[in-house]
Task: inverse folding
């Protein structure tokens, strides 16, 4: 029996006998895919609005009804004074206050328009800004309708918005490719790193190191197991995306899998570096977490790279997930081809070489 | 020296961990077909020397040869010729006895059947449990399995780092019997132990402490060389007795050793006078008898000689 074969057999046996790992590989992607797409949403819903109606006109009533009917806004109260509404805002019951000035309708008809004012609680900047925007949009459409009913001829839309690739603006569609990235980092980055450090902690690595086995085949045997596990995890996640969310890749699955495999090689190489420089699991986990934080927050997973400061944008060029996330989103949602994504593939290939070279250089059979 | 007759040759090996000198210019030779014991307390540097010799660790200074091969240049060849059993059980606990054996045999490019004869006397004892996972074996069985795995590729030199630590007295004795059987088959064995009583089971021993070798000889010669008279002394109040003996001018050195305190006689020693002196100090049931020194006494004497030299 060849050495690699016997090493592989041992890894598979250990993997199967581990009471936890095989279950993790199946349960983890299912759990993540079932929960995370629902909760990681930037859509702002249920913005509580308090209206201070100083006008008591037909128009102000119409605005209030419109707010009440909106999917995104909920009418908290209609109050007589701003102070009353502001108290509610301070207590956190209300997210935004709309103040309708006296004689608003009258001014509207005579052409001497008075200004509506919106005060939003912007502790949560996203909710504050999006909430007031929704409110402003609602007001604009109400006013437009009103105008149309006064003089039907003047009604014409200035802009038409079309959301390409994600017509319903579903945040989920944006998140699912990103979740695959997280799954791969955990299954193929953390697990082999912990496995190798585990051999250090148990002392079994010493027994291996006094055999003529090369470090290359010893490590490769471990990685193969986790590479396969990584591909299984992705497959499960893609199946869940299709069955539960009805989301399938627009582009070719082959492109997705080749991108994923390249990324798996990069991340497992990174895990090896972590395991080489740590002597305990604690150190390895801490080291990995530091970088995984950077990966998650700086690779365009949650916030667009383009809105980061310039220096940070330069940093993202060395972050492997940046390229994989870009491949996943483009192929998954826009149907990009391998050729379209060639630079991302190239960057990943370079990083794969760099990471694994780093892993080979930091490995010592003898200290 | 002719390396053909030497299994292990260590010349002035030093190794430091930061400020701590784990090995300080250690030199020793192990002949072919001999059981050589490294005897010393924890921190003597035994495990460090083992790791250097089995090519797990680089020495700071010095050279060494194992089976005639240089540990620096020929480390790859050394790895296929030595069997190493680390102090800590380090086989795969989630693999069975059988799987562990097969795994290590294949890594060395042999099969279990090929070298079955060598391991058979030991393996037969654990074979009934071969389907059991290594992690669920008793201490003695783990030790036998570890020895089997270290032997499966028929090494020429066997390194056993504290193989009997944490094993009961009967199993320890059995283990030494196994080593003697292996030696008969031509294996050279370097074994370390913190138990002084196991020294007598070795052909030659090196007494070591804090990274230095105090002396190398056969256990028998070591005891014969013991220069001085040793007495066992006991009384009712053993603790008070120890203090009084240590301050007594006629006693060179005194230490606890179980039932009796061991006292090394100085030049002015007289048993009768000492007994009188102790009884005057209020000790009752004083008993003084000459004692044949063992390895532990040799060790303590060497240690105190060295401390005197340093002062």
Result:
């Amino acid at each position: 029996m060849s050495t690699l074969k016997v090493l592989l057999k041992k890894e598979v046996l250990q993997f199967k006998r581990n009471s936890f790992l095989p279950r993790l590989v199946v349960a983890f992607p299912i759990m993540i895919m079932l929960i995370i797409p629902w909760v990681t949403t930037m859509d702002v819903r249920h913005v509580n609005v308090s209206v201070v109606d100083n006008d008591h006109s037909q128009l102000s009533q119409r605005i209030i009804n419109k707010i009440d009917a909106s999917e995104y806004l909920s009418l908290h109260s209609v109050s007589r004074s701003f102070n009353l509404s502001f108290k509610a805002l301070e207590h956190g019951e209300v997210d935004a206050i709309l103040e309708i000035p006296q004689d608003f309708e009258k001014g509207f008809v005579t052409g001497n328009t008075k200004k509506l004012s919106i005060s939003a609680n912007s502790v949560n900047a996203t909710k504050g800004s999006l909430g007031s925007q929704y409110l402003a949009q609602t007001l604009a459409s109400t006013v437009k309708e009103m105008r149309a009913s006064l003089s039907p001829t003047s009604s014409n839309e200035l802009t038409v918005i079309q959301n390409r690739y994600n017509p319903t603006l579903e945040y989920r569609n944006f998140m699912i490719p990103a979740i695959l990235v997280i799954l791969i980092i955990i299954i193929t980055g953390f697990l082999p790193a912990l496995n190798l450090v585990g051999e250090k902690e148990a002392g079994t690595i010493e027994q291996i190191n006094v055999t003529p086995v090369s470090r290359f085949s010893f490590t490769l045997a471990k990685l193969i197991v986790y590479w396969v596990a990584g591909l299984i995890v992705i497959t499960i996640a893609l199946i869940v995306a299709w069955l539960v969310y009805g989301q399938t890749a627009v582009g070719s699955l082959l492109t997705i899998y080749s991108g994923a495999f390249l990324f798996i090689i990069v991340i497992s190489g990174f895990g090896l570096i972590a395991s080489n420089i740590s002597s305990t699991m604690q150190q390895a986990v801490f080291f990995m977490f530091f970088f995984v934080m950077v990966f998650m927050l700086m690779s365009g997973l949650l916030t667009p790279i383009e809105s980061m400061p310039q220096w940070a944008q330069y940093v993202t060029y060395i972050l492997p997930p940046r390229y994989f996330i870009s491949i996943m989103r483009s192929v998954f949602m826009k149907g990009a081809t391998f050729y379209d994504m060639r630079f991302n593939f190239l960057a990943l290939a370079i990083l794969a070489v760099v990471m694994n070279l780093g892993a080979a250089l930091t490995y010592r059979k003898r200290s | 020296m002719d390396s053909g007759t030497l299994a292990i040759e260590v010349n002035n090996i030093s190794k430091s961990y930061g400020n701590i000198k784990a090995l300080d210019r250690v030199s020793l030779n192990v002949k072919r077909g001999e059981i050589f014991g490294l005897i010393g307390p924890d921190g003597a540097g035994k495990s460090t020397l083992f790791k250097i010799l089995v090519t797990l660790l680089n020495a700071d200074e010095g050279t060494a040869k194992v089976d005639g091969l240089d540990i620096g240049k020929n480390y790859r060849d050394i790895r296929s010729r030595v069997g190493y059993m680390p102090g800590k059980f380090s086989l795969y606990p989630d693999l069975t006895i059988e799987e562990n054996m097969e795994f290590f045999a294949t890594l060395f490019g042999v099969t279990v059947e090929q070298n079955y004869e060598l391991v058979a006397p030991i393996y037969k004892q654990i074979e009934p449990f071969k389907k059991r996972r290594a992690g669920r074996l008793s201490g003695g069985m783990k030790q036998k399995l570890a020895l089997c795995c270290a032997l499966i590729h028929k090494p020429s030199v066997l390194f056993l780092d504290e193989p009997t630590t944490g094993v009961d007295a009967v199993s320890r004795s059995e283990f030494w019997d196994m080593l003697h059987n292996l030696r008969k088959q031509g294996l050279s064995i370097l074994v370390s132990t913190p138990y002084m009583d196991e020294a007598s089971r070795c052909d030659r021993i090196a007494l070591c402490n804090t990274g230095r070798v105090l002396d190398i000889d056969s256990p028998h010669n070591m005891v014969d060389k013991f220069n001085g008279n040793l007495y066992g002394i006991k009384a009712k109040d053993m603790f008070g007795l120890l203090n009084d003996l240590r301050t007594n001018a006629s006693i060179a050195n005194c230490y606890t050793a179980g039932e009796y305190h061991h006292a090394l006689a100085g030049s002015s020693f007289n048993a009768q006078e000492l007994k009188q002196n102790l009884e005057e100090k209020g000790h009752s049931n004083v008993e003084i008898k000459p004692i044949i020194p063992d390895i532990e006494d040799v060790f303590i004497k060497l240690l105190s000689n060295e401390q005197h030299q340093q002062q």
